[in-house]
């Protein structure tokens, strides 16, 4: 454990020098900061020695738990060879191997791997590829995009342009390129007032209307497949993704799937689009790519897209994009070790009983007075708190109901982060059944306490 004076110094610097992301610092500096010192398995330990279950997989990216020997060793082995060399020109061994492995496991048809560092850049790359693809094909007017309401693709200007979360994206609107937003298939709050049982996916009509009117100007549709994460863990009805792909084909628009969150097992399959047997034109991967160890991302494209970028140098068809740490050998070595673990530890096979277990245990929350909706997709779940269950009236956001539940959970040894009044459950894939029970019990009790229900 750390020396008391040193801990105090850390707290002081944390408040005086560090600007935390997505954090109202005025509130932050009033509280005692949680400073993590180490982790093991699903547990994180703070500088005071208190342990927490990592219920958000360290922002949705950890798969195999913390301090996983195989991942640590892979990075140690690589760092003794070389830590970083550029892909602008030369190549490196882990980056090559990983590209080969990724092409083997992604949906058939995605053939080319373009590396970057994070989910935002993976999508930024996808957007630029889609745009330039049409330019090279001679469709000069296809410069706009279609995205989903409540969609989230990152925090760079390009990805915010296709972002549909008013709270995050509203302030920067003058900086954006043109994007058309289709209704989100958010069944609990269906904008068409329909029931999922007999709606025949009529939300697709909204998308078709946009495409019918504007497809001559649309380069691509970008969306998160099966589940919209940051927009509120919105789980799409079965068939929606296939419906979108059919419309994209019909109207000659590329389909970009943002699998930054859903990739690498979260939904129960390696990639979410495999649930509906879809191959997108472009796919963005990041969060789980190396088990949540280091910044790494990949954008995969079809041969058809890649080929339009080929030509004499003087034709200027080169894809002029790249980041300093693109294809970082340490990140790629960790990714290779992570993929190895999927085989060795039968991660996906072992996930299935856990997903069922989670589903069964979530039923207990239905009886809580302020739980309006419970959603699950694979090992991702969300509990939507409402002020009034009958009218679905949400808690006013100023009331910070979600944040209060998470503060209570933290006291009881669980780290989670809400999306407004939605409690998000996203543990590492290796979580055991008893740990999952502990996590759910803490959330249950915390909701009871915060909503005054005994
Ligand atoms: C987190 C996330 C991103 C952004 O990734 P960063 O690494 O935070 O830039 C993009 N798309 C989805 C679906 C995400 O969940």
Please compute the radius of gyration using only Cα atoms: 22 Å
Tally of individual domains: 2
Helix content: 25-40%
How is the main sheet built?
7 strands, mixed
Structure classification? alpha/beta
Query: How many helix segments?
Result: 15
Mean pLDDT figure: 97
For the record, what is the CATH homologous superfamily label of the largest domain? Type I PLP-dependent aspartate aminotransferase-like (Major domain)
Q: What ligands does this structure carry?
A: pyridoxal-5'-phosphate
Highest CATH level, the class of the largest domain = Alpha Beta
Across the major sheet, the strand order is: 4-12-11-10-7-5-6
**Overall morphology:** globular
Strand percentage lies at 15-25%
- The low-confidence parts are none
Straight-line N-to-C gap? 37 Å
CATH architecture term of the largest domain? 3-Layer(aba) Sandwich
- Count every beta strand, where a strand is a DSSP E run of 2 or more residues: 17
List keywords for this structure.
single chain, 454 residues, alpha/beta, Aspartate Aminotransferase, domain 1, Aspartate Aminotransferase, domain 2, 7-stranded mixed beta sheet, 4-stranded mixed beta sheet, 15 helices, globular, binds pyridoxal-5'-phosphate
